[in-house]
Design goal:
The structure is a homodimer. Chain A is of the alpha/beta class. Helices cover 40% and strands 16% of the residues of chain A. In chain A, strands 2-1-3-4-5-11 form a six-stranded parallel beta sheet, sandwiched between helices. The structure holds a DNA duplex.
Chain lengths: 361, 361
DNA sequence: CCCATCTTTGGTATCGTTACCAAACCCTAC
DNA sequence: GTAGGGTTTGGTAACGATACCAAAGATGGG
């Protein structure tokens, strides 16, 4: 509407940069640029953007026109710095975004974060402590207001309250010795015990175990629950049926194939997580196809639900828990601690219950 | 080692904040805090953190000790502002992080971003144009150096070069009319045509269609491919067999159940995406269970691969393409444009090929 | 012993934004 | 006409970090 007195020169356009003469590297517009174009002071621009309190409507129009013309967006980093508001970010470090389990988890965190008007910034550690350390450092450098972490395990120097400079931390899914932080776990031991017991009750005596590394707490705890159930039923543990340390589907499939190839193969398999379940099922599927589609194989107990479990050709029991809910709980704990006064309370450890779903037995 | 002359007071501790007397709200340490504690100037701290060029080793030790003591982490936002380096962030806006397809996609973007030392910041639009608009605005405010977006469709004012202030944008998976941006698509039409043709070649004549809304380009293009294949074989389209607009598994399952309940149900179903495939299979699975486990149902063609396809009780053909690769390609295009001089080139549209996998027919 | 050179250190200004203050302006009412 | 109130506007400083410059200290050669 109002026409601009176009001194349309962006600051810095005039002087032919003496250092590097690199071409058009997209420099975002600033309040000053807008102010110059609109013929007002930066403060007036700032006020207009902030809602226009005490700015004459016709001036606002001028400013907004300039904003449009330059494609200006307020630099939120600079703004937050001045206003001394937090960054509006929480860091989420998971092992692998491609694992649907952790993707759901991240979604749960995002949900709660969005409710608090906070954005999440995600990084994958790939189960690597060093990458985790870098990731956390980077997050802290970006002034995240809190951290949600699925710890890779190993050294935990970088997670001490001291090292975090007081930034709240929540550990999810896995516990970590010697780190004083809120933790949200799943009832790994109880769930594993219940799942294994279901197999035993159904009469199985040769039960294999497929799980992740003993070094991470879930691996440890789930294995413990598995063993305790066997003990309860007086069934001896056959070491040949225990495969631990598979991190991905391929490794799990290989381990499972080896189990199927045993002279005396297991009649049931306890899969300690999502990745191992899928791998085991793929191994069974390959066998099914070789044998001309006769749908059969050992019964499966899976720690973690997965899509289409009901369509599997073998009996499946699921130790279910909601990854998304785990994410929500973690985030809730985090925001509680980020709230004024939240830093004082003693750290909490929440254990989420599991639910046994017998898909088919 | 060197002992600190502990005037260990953090700035602002002394004066009892006159405004709000809120308790310990975690204020991160700054260079000044470190400098005071170490008894040196902020510059010396800055230099030490930056690598210690021209700082006496014993002073460095002092500084690092103070850094440890305070849990100091350099404020990267402030730093980047002064150094006039980009934010080291690219924004990724997808429809839903819980969809494994988009999670993989995000992972692909993250991979490439990590190679460039750039972090990604993720948000879900939930297929909602307004949320998309807000998300993009937020990202721009955070000074992202680039945007990767799976557009929700609808109005695209906020995606014009003008509105973005020149921040590079890559559209992924779906095209958008009237937006001048690099786009990475999948060969939707060709893939859908090939998949449908496979069904027709196998003798199917009553083929249903389950897909997402016609308003998004994938929905449009895949449907077009489907229709063209039918035409090629001279098979008339039965409107009763076409269900469009299902966004999630539940909706797809309901639609599929309706199809199964028809007097003259389809002998095959074309599922235009991941969510619809899973929903369709769940519907079939429910039917299978009702009928006492007799594994049978219509043949399925699925646009999008999914885990355990080989274990399904019905014949499955997959129109495969790698979401992660799609993410990688998108990110690669984005970084090309973010590079010096990259803004000049004409926008490109890449179409990734699909691959037909006959799991069982 | 002093000047030249190099290393070490600190002061100042700045990135983009806004809180705060002060000045200019507009009204109304006496 | 002017004092008193409100509204509108711009200047200045500061958030946390560092580029740049200048000063101080160390080193060495004559």
């Amino acid at each position: 509407m109002a026409n601009l007195n176009a001194h349309g020169d962006r600051a810095g356009d005039g002087k032919p940069s003496p250092t590097s003469s690199r071409p058009t590297v997209h420099r975002p517009a600033t309040v000053k640029d807008v102010a110059k174009l609109a013929g007002v002071s930066p403060m007036t621009v700032s006020r207009t953007i902030a809602g226009g309190q005490n700015v004459r409507p016709e001036i606002q129009a001028l400013v907004l026109e300039a904003v449009q013309a330059l494609g200006y967006h307020r630099n939120d980093n600079a703004r937050r710095m001045r206003v001394n508001k937090g960054s509006g970010l929480v860091g989420v470090a998971i092992t692998n975004l491609a694992n649907p389990y952790y993707a759901s988890f991240a979604l749960g965190v995002e949900e709660v974060a969005a409710q608090h008007g906070v954005r999440i910034i995600i990084g994958s550690t790939g189960e690597n402590t060093e990458r985790e350390r870098q990731l956390v450092a980077d997050f802290l450098g970006r002034q995240v207001e809190g951290l949600v972490l699925v710890p890779a395990g190993g050294d935990s120097e970088h997670l001490q309250v001291q090292a975090l400079g007081g930034t709240p931390l929540v550990l999810a899914s896995r516990a970590l010795e010697g780190v004083d932080a809120d933790t949200v776990l799943v009832d790994d031991t109880g769930g594993a015990h219940a799942g294994t017991s279901a197999l035993l009750k159904a009469g199985h005596r040769r039960i294999a175990y497929l799980g992740n590394a003993a070094s991470v707490s879930t691996g440890h705890r789930r294995y413990a629950g598995f063993c305790r159930a066997l003990e309860d039923y007086g069934v001896p543990l056959d070491p040949a049926l225990v495969k631990r340390g598979q991190q991905d589907v391929e490794a799990a499939q290989i381990s499972m194939t080896a189990l199927l190839d045993l002279e005396d193969p297991p009649t049931a398999v306890f899969c300690a997580n999502n990745r191992n379940t899928i791998g085991a099922l793929k191994a069974i599927g390959a066998r099914v196809q070789e044998r001309g589609g006769i749908a059969t194989g050992p019964a499966i107990v899976s720690f973690d639900d997965f899509e289409l479990a009901e369509l599997m050709p073998v009996p499946i029991t699921i130790i279910d828990h909601d990854a998304r809910q785990l994410g929500r709980e973690s985030a809730t704990l985090l925001f509680a601690r980020m709230a004024p006064g939240g830093a004082i309370a003693a750290t909490r450890e929440i254990e989420m219950p599991t639910r046994l779903i017998v898909v088919r037995s």
